[in-house]
Design brief:
9 helices, 2 domains, single chain, mainly alpha, 63% helix
Amino acid sequence: MARTPVLADPDRYPSGRLRVPRGVREGGPAWQQVHTQLALEALRLLAETGYAGMGIDDVARAAGASTKTVYRHYASKVDLAVAAIRELPTMAGWYDGDDPVENRIARALEIGAAHHEYLVPVLANAIVHRNTVPELLDAVREYVLEPRQAAIESAIIRGKAHGRIREDLDPLLVSWAITGQLVDSFTGLHPLPTAKKRVHEVFAHLLPLIRP
C-alpha cells in the first residue's frame, strides 16, 4: 500500500526549526521593527566601514540580534545592503505646504540636516562596487537619487505655477547643487561642521538661484 506523502510545513525549515519564532508574526509589528532595525544598522556600517566591512555578524551584534535572525529577514548580504540603501532619505514631502517658498526650503533643509551624512559614503561604495555588486548602484539610483530629483522637480513645478520660482530654473541645477554641497562637506573641500551652518550655507546659495 502506497504511503501518503507528508506535506512540508511552510512554517518550518526542513530541519524542523520554526522559520519565524513563536509569537512573532512575519510582517507584524515586532517582525517589522527588527526588519527595519537591521537595515538601519546595516546602513550605518555600510557608510562607516564600506560594503566589504559590513559583516552580517556585525549587523546582528549592532542590532542586538543573532546572525540567524538576520538571515531570516534578509537572504544575503546584498539583500541587506539594498535594504540599508532604501533607508536613505529621498526628500519626499520635505517641501510640502502652502507657506512661502522660502519657509518650505528652509524647512526641507533642516529636515535634511537632521539626517546623518550617509548618502555620500554609500554612493561612493556603490560606485566602487559597480562592477562586482551592481545592485548597490542600482538601488541608490532607483530608491534615493531618482526620488530626490523627482521631489525637487515637483516642488519647483508647484513654485513656478504660483509665480514664486523663476520660470527658467532647471530642477537639475538644484539637485546638483544640493548633492554637490554634501560631497564638498563630506570630503572637507568646504566643511560645514554643524547642521545649522549647513542649512544656512545651502539656503544662502539656493535662494538667489530660484527667486524670480
